[in-house]
Design goal:
two-stranded antiparallel sheet, alpha/beta, 47% helix, 13 helices
Length: 316
């Protein structure tokens, strides 16, 4: 192996895709941590004395995020109150093991842990939803419920920020997906290092400029990896392209409002989670799958409740 580029006298163990530097383990860890610190300070992600919930799934990204946030908080005296927030979707044989990892993180990093379940929040586990809807569309339910569950958990914990483990690969993939879909609203948000879902608790991404393969250390994503083989800098180039894109001022963008059913922030009169739950609870599990206009029409045609306050169609 070549010598470490940091000239520490040790042999390198890896070559960084971002910079091309060859580094030993110790110098890599130092560079990795310093870059995240630079990201946090440059973007002013946190105010001193803030309470921060770390979205903890038990995967590599959230585990590294929890470790680095604790280390940097102590090393640079951010004065942050850090807590772990985990969501139990109710998937037998999958979430059980990862929750054990989250609990180990709680013990290792000496952080309080709050676990919220789909069952408690929505009255359904993902296993029960899959039994009702099948495997084809279950990801729609899980994605919608999980995003809302994290925000609800952050509100319950009364935190100032919600930190997620999204890395550079995740963001570059999302940029490509939104370009392919022509989704202007999400494209304008997906590259932001700080986003506000409308509940007053910003989501922040301290790992935004960190490559997935460095976190591992030791149809869009496949395209992304093929492009990376041609040009190792493609991930950062895609993120920067997404940041540079400007939306036509005359474009119609969704505005945030309160869901008329649950009061949660939504771009529609009724949030996606309530639509999905309505379908599950009425024996119409595919109700929330598809375009919103189709959903509204279906509810109007199949529900005689249009004059009640709980009606989803809002035809009043």
């Amino acid at each position: 192996m070549p010598p470490c580029s940091a000239k520490c006298g040790k042999n390198a163990i890896l070559k960084r895709p971002k910079t091309g530097d060859t580094l030993c383990k110790e110098c890599f860890f130092e560079a990795f941590e310093n870059e995240i610190h630079f990201t946090i300070t440059r973007a002013k992600l946190f105010k001193p004395g803030s309470k921060v919930a770390i979205a903890a799934s038990g995967g590599k990204d959230s585990t590294v995020l929890a470790y680095v946030m604790k280390l940097l908080n102590e090393k640079y005296d951010y004065k942050l109150d850090l807590v772990l927030l985990s969501i139990d979707e109710g998937i037998t044989g999958y979430r059980d093991d990862s929750l054990d990892t989250v609990k180990q993180n709680r013990d290792d990093y000496k952080m309080p842990l709050k676990i919220l379940s789909y069952k408690d929040l929505y009255g359904w586990t993902m296993d029960e939803i899959v039994a009702e809807i099948g495997r084809k569309n279950n990801c729609t339910f899980c994605g919608v419920f999980r995003r809302q569950a994290l925000d609800r958990g952050a509100t319950l914990l009364n935190v100032d920020y919600l930190a997620t483990g999204h890395n550079a690969d995740d963001i570059a993939e999302t940029v490509l997906m939104n370009i392919l879909r022509g989704d202007l609203a999400r494209l304008s948000r997906c590259t932001s290092i700080i986003t506000d879902s409308g509940d007053g608790i910003p989501r922040v991404k301290p790992l935004k400029y960190t490559y997935e393969k460095e976190i591992v250390m030791g149809h869009a994503r496949v395209l992304l990896k093929d492009l990376e083989k041609i040009d190792p800098a493609v991930i950062m180039n895609i993120i920067q392209s997404g940041e540079s894109l400007k939306i036509n001022e005359n474009a119609n963008m969704p505005t945030l409002k309160k869901c008329t059913r649950c009061g949660y922030v939504s771009s529609q009169d009724v949030c996606k989670a309530c639509v999905l739950l309505e379908g599950l609870n009425k024996g119409l599990p595919k109700l929330g799958i598809g375009k919103s206009s189709k959903v509204k029409r279906h509810i109007q045609e199949n529900s005689p409740c249009c004059k009640t306050q709980s009606c989803l169609c809002n035809n009043k």
